[in-house]
## 1
Amino acid sequence: MKKIASLTLDGKTYELPVVIGSEGETAIDISKARKETGFITLDPGFANTGSCQSSITFMDGQKGILRYRGIPVEQLSEHSTFVETAYLLINGELPTRKELSRFSIMLNDHSLVHEDMRAFFENFPKRAHPMGILSSMVNALRAFYPELPERSDEEEINITFARLLSKVRTMAAMSYKMSLGHKVIYPRHDLTYCANFLNMMFDSPVRPYVIDEDLVKVLEVFWILHADHEQNCSTAAVRLVGSARVNLYAAISAGIAALWGPLHGGANQAVIEMLQQIYDNGGDPAPFIVRAKDKNDTFRLMGFGHSIYKTYDPRARIMEKTCHKLLEKLNRDDPLLDIARRLEEVAVKDSYFIDHNLYPNIDFYSGIVLRAIGIPLDMFTVMFAIGRLPGWISQWKESIDDPKWKLHRPRQIYIGPKMRDYIPIDERS
Ligand code: CMC
């Protein structure tokens, strides 16, 4: 039976349709509320607002569930590859062998970066943050490659997506090499997407990089876990900017800028900085926990808490296991991992964290994984961005194809001064 919500305002009752998702999630459709009632809804941060209906990713924050196109991330991180997961997110189904091979060939064919783009990289100040560089460079791709026309055929669309997925990875490694003043390593046709990235980052004419399949698998898992997260801040930015029908590169560039923030993707870098600070101060996490609980202190425990997960982030569990296995394999102790473990142990038993539903999120362990692979700290959020690309692309595609598409234009409640007259400068007190 169709559910209806009713709203009574000034003695008049309005009926509002209820929308039910495939996993039983419910929403009250207020899209006609302003027209019919004259009222808008107020929801700072949009935490109670569904901006779209989507068939890409399902999350349940209370139960700690994350699925891409219905498939649990636990299964994907165990059995899939990042490229296959990207295909799943963008196309809705797992690829056949033939489809996967075609997709991989396309990624390989479009992996080179236009040589003229080197000049852009060379002219950034040496201290520029790689996320700022990446956001600018992705926007600049539009100057080199055509925009998708309104009615593109499937091949054009696939090439554009492959171009973006492949080039962003190449550009990330290229910017790292250039920041060192080293020779840029080009992508190789005989390597997989993830292996290619590691090779472009770490191969050198004086020390050839030996591909380690275990490290490749760790990177696959890292990127699979980051591949989509429904309407998070950066994805919402991609959809919002994209809603103005701007080109795909500009929309993704906006997503990268949003991801840069320490409350979002920048948290993986912030966690390591926090753990390092604890280490430098003798290694005792207790004073930091006290600070995180102090309302007069702006300090937050980085890598803890999530807007949606009010339990353990399912990605954090996989990341922790991956981290443990990796350090064991590399036969390496990381003092920051010990601190992270102690910090988690204390925090999850502390009433403040329990009452506020604050548990480790993906970023709590991902930084330690990246450190072990050899990724420099300021590239951590770039690693997140490469992983999130399939999500941004699929969400952008879904929004563009949505027959109910609308230019995003939220409203506000104005609380500024009422109408007043302009005062000439000489008459102002
Ligand atoms: N440390 C201490 N207190 C916290 C923390 C934290 N990490 N996170 C939230 N709180 C407190 C906050 O002070 C507030 O307390 P009170 O209600 O007493 O005033 C309450 O919890 C709710 O905070 P909020 O900011 O309204 O909650 P939110 O759900 O919107 O915040 C968050 C989500 C991720 C911004 C926040 O938990 C946070 O800042 N975490 C640290 C940064 C971080 O790890 N970000 C990575 C998120 S996962 C990667 C991704 O998907 O982007």
Note: The radius of gyration is 24 Å.
## 2
Amino acid sequence: MSKNFDVIVIGGGPGGYIAAIRAAQLGFNVACIDAWKNDKGGPAPGGTCTNVGCIPSKALLQSSEHYEHAAHHFADHGIGLKDLSIDVKKMLARKDTVVKQNNDGILYLFKKNKVSFFHGLGRFVRAVDGGYEVAVGDESLLGKHVIVATGSNARALPGVPFDEDNILSNDGALKVGAVPKTLGVIGSGVIGLEMGSVWRRLGAEVTVLEGLPTFLGAVDEQIAKEAHKAFTKQGLKIALGVKVGEVKSAKNGVTVAYVDAKGQPQELAVDKLIVSIGRVPNTTGLNAEAVGLQLDERGAIVVDADCRTNLPGVWAVGDVVRGPMLAHKAEEEGVAVAERIAGQHGHVNFNTIPWVIYTSPEIAWVGETEQQLKARGAAYKAGTFPFMANGRARALGDTTGMVKFLADAATDEILGVHIVGPMASELIAEAVVAMEFKASSEDIARICHAHPSLSEATKEAALAVDKRTLNF
Ligand code: FAD
Ligand code: NAI
């Protein structure tokens, strides 16, 4: 016999589990189906983000940053250390504990909100009168609405499958059992820089091969240049404009043949290779054909601005649809869809979605870059403030980078805020709030910021738009 639900959510990552909780809060009878298995075969909701993405990568970034501080910066504080070592197994076990706490937290939230959780692959069976039949294992569920949130998978180089031993996706990159002597990374995007940083800090010699001639093309050029300088100084070798050729994996490592930016053939021999060249939407096992759910040529589910698919009552959110592949974007879409199902006016402002790269220095931004403003012929004013001139940054011993404001030349409305430097991930929140409220740079410049704090650099950058910084 089928079980009846108002809303069935397929996928329990940040898009799906948040949609399920919000729908339950709104009074619906909700099921959430998620297939992720922990190493004992049990449920591990939270998707890519919790299991092999945001959370474990940040756990390892934290551990490796502690190590780097101990190895290179404690001495500046007069702290002496003998026999510094890293126990990689323990570091990985800590990361696994952090992941498990998050998995368990989501299961608890499902219980608290009375969301029925089903562990397994959810697949469309057929459209029925007033809804859809979805199967999980040998159970049949009937839902008036279905929200698909099946996420994404790592993209492999053509003909070079991940073996997760030598050739690593984000999954394998989080599980390397010992610090490799040499590590290659293909793609200097977000994963390449974050995971490259983890293993470099722990002592690996890291070489990043990037296909594009520019470094972090989506980032404001001035900020990307500053970040490139900092990463290079740290010892990350970044080759831009390369064309990757044959990749050969053997017992003792991997060789990558490539042509460098000058057209010269080169070969990189490394112990391990991370391939981080983007992600592809995932609809595996969904049986989309059974109901005629429309996919585009990339395999993404086609949706309108409100996450409606081509089928009435079927919605899709997160990495499996267009837009940035970010956990908080998936969550916002999940909430908005649940509210739309309830007849409310769910809304996602795509212009104020923040981006963060959790390297050191961190890179964070919201809104338009200077090159985008130039390209659309916008009249704008820019203001920057370096962390070098910020008292808290000096006290922290972390003065790399700057805050940059871009504001409309006529109205002073903030059009973009770009940060490279310490705690950029936290500082960007103020800029997001400001832009959501259509603030001007003067609004930020007039707000009292605590002293000494990194946030004073934000205020000073806003003052710089009007050429009146006080501390620089
Ligand atoms: P997912 O998190 O991929 O979840 C989809 C879930 O659906 C999975 O559990 C999957 O098993 C399940 N599923 C798939 N098909 C079915 C089916 N048929 N039936 C049942 N279940 C199914 N984003 C950030 O914002 N900040 C970060 O710091 C960040 N770091 C990242 C680091 C790495 C290494 C990676 C790889 C990604 C990172 N991301 C980060 C991106 C973020 O993880 C994704 O944008 C986010 O997880 C997308 O959420 P989602 O719910 O759409 O999909
Ligand atoms: P990415 O899109 O960030 O970067 C991929 C890079 O690989 C690009 O610079 C691209 O030019 C390059 N590339 C593509 N094909 C190539 C080839 N054949 N040879 C050499 N270079 C090539 O993708 P990435 O790093 O895999 O991450 C996927 C997504 O996951 C991100 O876009 C982001 O949405 C999400 N993510 C978010 C994080 C965060 O918010 N902090 C952290 C990690 C991932």
Note: The chain is about 30% helix and 25% strand.
